[in-house]
Amino acid sequence: MTTNMIPVRLRCEYLDNPSGIDAPQPRLNWQLEAVSPTQRSLKQTAYQILVSSSEAGLEEKQGDLWDSGKVLSNQSSHIVYAGSALTSGQQCWWRVRVWDAQDEVSDFSPSASWEMGLLTGADWQGKWIGLQASKPAYDAIDVEPMGKLPGLQASPYLRTTTNLPQAVRKARLYVTAKGVYEVHINGQRVGDAYFAPGWTDYHQRIQYQTYDVTAQLQQGENSIAAILGTGWYCGHVGFWIDGQGNNYQHYGTDPRLLLQLHIEYNDGSSQTIVSDDSWQGALGPIVFSDFLAGETYDARHELDGWDLPTRATTDRWQPVLVEELNPGIRIVAEPDQPIRVTQTLTPQTITEVSPGIFVYDMGQNMVGWVRLQVEGSAGTRVQLRFAEMLNPDGSIYTTNLRSARQTDSYILKGQGQEVFEPHFTFHGFRYVELSGYPGQPTLEALTGLVTHSDTPPTGSFECSNLMVNQLQKNIVWGQRGNFISVPTDCPQRDERLGWMGDAQIFVHTACYNMDVAAFFTKWMRDVVDAQAPDGGFPDVAPRVALKTNGAPAWGDAGIIVPWTIYQMYGDTRILEEHYEAMVRWLDYLHAANPELLWKNKRNNDYGDWLSIEADTPKELLGTAYFGYDALLMSRIARALGRDADAEKYQRLFTAIGEAFTRAYVDEEGYISGGTQTCYVVALQMQLLPEHLRPLAARHLVKEIEKKNGHLSTGFVGVGYLCPVLTNSGYSEVAFQLLNNETFPSWGYSIKHGATTIWERWDGWTTDKGFQNPAMNSFNHYSLGSVGQWLFQYVAGINTDPEQPGYQHIQLRPYPGDDLSYVKAEFMSIHGKIASAWQKDGSTLTFTVTIPANTTATIALPATNNAQIFEGTVPVADADGVAFVQEEEERMLFKIGSGTYCFRVYAS
Ligand code: BGC
Asked: Which ranges carry the Alpha-L-rhamnosidase concanavalin-like domain (predicted)?
């Protein structure tokens, strides 16, 4: 006998068959799939996991590393490996089988695997290597069209060769850089990651990547070669704080490579090849490659055969410079998905805006670069400049880029068809200006390559309003363009920093759109690395360019982000890992504000950033976030079983709420400052006594009415605005804000052609044109934090907050005004949840699917005298559906796994 469900999608630490895991006890995860889609209420009652050190052993159903035995549990996520201790490089194959409610057991799943990384500092035998001296680029070559930007440097090319005596059975390459790297073996690029090893505080922690390179090696002569870029390590990142141009070399002056290749031969012997003084280095065609400046590539200086076992040029190769490893800097496995090219875009149009100057429209504000195809004579210089918008005359608008030049130049070698892609730079753009092109360029001359941290898509949302569908697209494009190793504010100007305020307001939306669990696992380590000795979390993580401690709503990301990851994925480890850091942050706030009111303002207090004619008092916002932190900490402590702490923080939260109310709220529920955001934060953060909440909600609605039915919230208020309205019984007002196309609204930017979320409501207006170019990005995700409301309220897909991680799901859709249907899907950690509703005269249809081994409470908008059918039968007779209770205007049912179609006929 087998069960009606099978375990699928086995993952380890959120990743598919990962290599380079350094969690000593990795967590395992699977989903359950019904064998037949019509089956309902499937439950796992027990599981057995086998982990084996060989694939063959696993075939034999032996778990020599771990056999969990039959464990009575419905848990299928975050199962902590509890077998024998794992060693560096250990390969683990695993499978799982499950028992259902009738105690029938399934077949074992197909096998999945993970592989441990290098677990100790002592595993690293290689040394940092680089060029003896790299000269500034403009000494080496004329970059006059760019002007002289300090801090640019040519990319080092590094190589070694080695003779392998026998055929290779298994080979793993461990590699990292101070800077960014690209490795080639025998002329072939290794892996498909870009900008590896990613951005961390290189003074404390540097990530490495692990690659299976077995197939790339051969018996006999082999070459291992690499190119380095400056990246975040010594290239330009952030802004010119003092106009002095010191926004480069944040961590060091020159890029370095650290590499280790472990080879196992067929006869069982092994060999390790490392970066050391046997390598050679040279300058090559990359004149410079910098995130903000762009890349200049002179193909005439290519090093023939630089990555092949036999090289043609010899004279330019010099011995490398070698540096010892610093034991104070941890070298850790990259825990999240690498940055990859995930899509290519073909330009839509090309216009010659002045003689020889062509502007391409990619049709989408995107992040990445373009591939150029060109043919011409040696020395011809083709230039590409990138911009988000156009000037009225059709030329590209670059003033909002500030000092970021976003310019790539390619100098031809003159050998027929040439193809150029930059190596270590990315741009935020919709338009590309091409100049210096020999001949008449065609659309095919350029291809857009979309690049970002490759977090798997998990959400889709569609409805009857095309503008809202475009809004959802813009939100996703904003997320793609800004999740580049860290969640950045913007991808184009001289900033691109891990702004905490932006991340905390958008994280929930981000979790619906893509699987960002591993991404935020990584970034939370950046946040905690950036915590100051006094407990202050930063404004930006990694803490660079701007060294201040975090302002209200910015520093609080240190608590809000792990809390949200816990809600969305049921992850308690992220809470455990950072608990002490969160406590220190809260202590720091408390010590600075003993009267529980945020009196100690700091000059980086941003308030409700970029609100529109509505200044929320900063002291009030600071107090609200202080209270919210205490509330979330009490819940976090409770989730971790730290009950005494939970009580303590609950008391602190209550006391802050009382102080808040005394200081800022009158007996009619008016809040000083009176902005929409004042009411939104007070309600969202539960700071008001119960009797004042409906009054405050009413004032919020009045404030919206005063603005002719428009919002005025900035980064801080915007994410909670529609949820608070909906929770307070004013969903129709939230839908009105959603549907608006007049200024200020989401619809306004869309009406004017936005394909991403703008930084400011008034980034461009019909009256005033462009806002101040000193701060006017057209790809900033914060105002897109309304996405959470679309999934969680409009489509109604939510976890049970008491049981985070979607094993018990709450479905509470809002069939809003002006929409005739909504269709949403969300790939939760337990599998796909789908929710759709449709209006047909007075009939409402709800079609929902929840995965095997989950349950849901569905709250249907209906009164108790409405007729409700499920499929073809009255709901009372439906299989897998149990009535729970009636609430105001809602009928609640509990459902087991499966697909259901409810019809509500209004009486
Ligand atoms: C960034 C923001 C950030 C803000 C702080 C801006 O320059 O682009 O996204 O949150 O500064 O006020």
From this structure: 352-452
